[in-house]
Amino acid sequence: MKSILIEFGQLLFTLSLYLLGGVILGLALLPATLLVFAVWEKAAEATPLVKGLAVSFGVAVGYFLFGLTLLGVVAFFRLLLGWKLKEGEYQAVSLGALRWACTNALYLVVAVTFMDFILITPLAPLFYRFMGAKVGRNVQINSKYCADLSLLEIGDYSVIGGHATVIAHSFERDRLILRRVKIGKGVTIGLNSVVLPGAEIGDGAIIAAGAIVPKSTLVPPHCTYTGPQG
């Protein structure tokens, strides 16, 4: 009976996240929808070809307008709801785990719809800051596979390479464990590398492409880290 109640609770929680996602996406789509409506009305008496071109360009521009609006809407909801992660260990069914799931769900809305278009641009670090990350100056982010952003620190002039994974959580024996990840100044996180919870990477270090930085690993400054030595 207990397991059935847990599964039912998980289903309700999932549906509530879908509802929240629908509200966020709907609000973000509003400016783009109004733009397309305006273009359609302006081109109402044009030939089918001209009308088709006008609406096509309106939809294309509207998509980017939607994406930029989405960044702001998601950041607003995070601030409004006060979702900020704290280091610690939490039961899989707990308020802390619920906050973790909701916070990452907000990020996921952007990651699957628009994140690819803001990578390597100043918008990516700005969005990370809005989501609670501590990000220094002139940081380049080229991966959408980061999570737990309010537990992430990135120093000045650091680079997160393509498809790198940086996360501050793990699940162990039915417990959610959250540990802050600290990336120093001038650090390069290589292509397809993985940085796990509690890792601290010293200034000027290079994490080699494909390397795995295990939990709570301290990477010395100005070294090239290729993986655990053993």
Characterise the protein shown here.
The protein has helices spanning 2-42, 48-81, 95-111, 123-130; strands spanning 88-91, 134-135, 140-141, 152-154, 159-160, 165-166, 169-172, 175-178, 181-183, 188-189, 194-195, 200-201, 206-207, 212-213, 218-219, 224-225. It is of the alpha/beta class. The strands form four sheets. The chain has a five-stranded parallel beta sheet, covered by helices on one side. It has a five-stranded parallel beta sheet with strand order 3-5-10-13-16, with no helix packed on it. The protein has a three-stranded antiparallel beta sheet with strand order 1-8-7, covered by helices on one side. Helix 1 packs across helix 2 and helix 2 packs antiparallel against helix 3. The longest helix is centred in the first third of the chain and has 41 residues, at 2-42. The protein is flat and about 70 Å long. The model has no long low-confidence stretch (mean pLDDT 92).
Rg is 21 Å
Helix content: 40-55%
Question: For this structure, what is the CATH homologous superfamily of the domain at 119-230?
Answer: Hexapeptide repeat proteins
CATH top level of the domain at 119-230 is: Mainly Beta
Biggest pleated-sheet summary: 5 strands, parallel
SS strand fraction = 15-25%
| CATH architecture verdict of the domain at 119-230 | 3 Solenoid
- End-to-end Cα distance, whole Å, is 46 Å
Uncertain ranges: none
* Cα shape: flat
Mean pLDDT: 92
Strand order in the sheet with the most strands: 2-4-9-12-15
Number of H/I helices: 4
Examine the coordinates and then state which fold CATH places here, giving the name of the CATH topology of the domain at 119-230: UDP N-Acetylglucosamine Acyltransferase, domain 1
The SSE order reads: HHEHHEEEEEEEEEEEEEEE
Structural class: alpha/beta
Number of DSSP-assigned strands: 16
